Amino acid sequence: MTFAARLAFALFLALALLQPAPVHAQSRRPLTVSVGGASVRWRPEVRLNGILRDQALRDALQNGLPLRFHCRVEMWLKAEPFDQLVGVQEMSRALLRAPLGEGYTLEDGRVQRRYSSMQAAERALQGALAPTLHPATGGRHYYLVRLNVETLSLDEVDELRRWLRGEARPAEAGRHPRGVERGVRRLFVRLLGLPSRRYEARTAIFRVG
Fold this sequence. Notes:
Blueprint: H1 3-17, H2 23-26, E1 31-35, E2 44-48, H3 55-62, E3 67-77, E4 84-97, E5 104-107, E6 112-115, H4 118-128, E7 139-151, H5 157-164, H6 176-191, E8 196-202, E9 206-208
Antiparallel strand pairs: 1-2, 3-4, 3-7, 4-5, 5-6, 7-8, 7-9
């Protein structure tokens, strides 16, 4: 497929995805977080509450565009005069439609796991984003969770896998024109308004010890 054809396809897809979501879907809280008990060392329990009910995200997946999920969990100690950030955990996964429409794949840049339905993939995603962070000392704590969901272009899949593995993108001598073309494609996809979401949730303050 030529670059011009890809741009035309992206424009057509964007127009479809820009349709407003139903009110009942907008009113849901896709991300929540609570605190587990002493038996799990007060770890945060992050819940994805039907996050893929979002029609724009579903449409992106159905049309073959990958979704990148990046979850950042912060553990804060309630203190005076300022709260203290005492722990951070970050996790990332990519969700793609499997070739020939045969289910969905969830990957971390190294391992791909296939699921037969979107619901099964979402359950696996929640498990993959389960944090292991927990307080190491007593005191009053709380958790703050941020989840970013980004729609990528098809040309970004290889770059995504490198990023998930924590690899820096290698320099490509003599490839500046192609790099510029890729950057233009990415900017074009963003400007078209393909869906991206940012969610945030926080626990109540809890005491340890």
